Amino acid sequence: MSAVYDCSKRESRVDGLTAAAAAVRSGRLVVLPTDTVYGIGADAFDAGAVRALLAAKNRGPDMPVGVLVGSWSTVDGLVLGVPPQARALIEAFWPGDLSVVLPHAPSLNWDLGSTRGTVMLRMPLHPVALELLREVGPMAVSSANVSGRPPASNVDEAREQLGESVAVYLDGGPSGDPVPSTIVDLTGDEPVLLREGAVPAAAVSEVLGVPVAPKA
């Protein structure tokens, strides 16, 4: 049976983070608050858990899952290299609402879906999410909703959609405006804007010093 923990109360938050970390380590799913919308997450290196995440969302591997990290330095171990453009965006917007797509390190034993050798990375600006990520390491995280339905902006909406497929729900209160992260693809010669979300394209262009064009 799923457990829900109110993270606005210190004792419940400690118990919830302990339970969530145990769930992630045992291959189960958790719902966690982020600075955008609520996310459903699993151990990024547990292929079975990632498949369960996709099944809970009624989504196929053709829509791969991004990875949340708890620190800047974690990125260095996940990708082939961090180019200057990526480093500039990380320093400007992390933790925050910007995701970057980079070629992942080929030695990593993970299966996030049909990523074509890339990974989408973000460090969220939310204390509960960061504490869990720093405890368990990188997590595969997607919006906490069934595919085709609105993303959950509170824990009740997440529970209504995902139910018992999730072991632990961390209630961090309302997420605010349900605006997704901005996604910038840095796998090619020029940066490409895959999605404009909470961070305006103009802000990305200003940091990079070049116009960032949307995907054709």
TrEMBL record:
Alphabetically ordered keywords of this record: ATP-binding, Cytoplasm, Nucleotide-binding, Nucleotidyltransferase, Transferase, tRNA processing
Reaction(s) the record says it catalyses: L-threonine + hydrogencarbonate + ATP = L-threonylcarbamoyladenylate + diphosphate + H2O
Enzyme kind, highest EC tier: transferase
Coiled coil: none
UniProt cross-references to InterPro entries, sorted A to Z: DHBP_synth_RibB-like_a/b_dom, Sua5-like_dom, TC-AMP_synthase_SUA5
EC number, as in UniProt: 2.7.7.87
One Pfam assignment: Sua5_yciO_yrdC
GO MF entry, a single one: L-threonylcarbamoyladenylate synthase
PANTHER family to which the protein is assigned, alphabetical: SUA5 (PTHR17490), THREONYLCARBAMOYL-AMP SYNTHASE (PTHR17490:SF16)
The protein, known as: L-threonylcarbamoyladenylate synthase
Organism, scientific name: Amycolatopsis arida
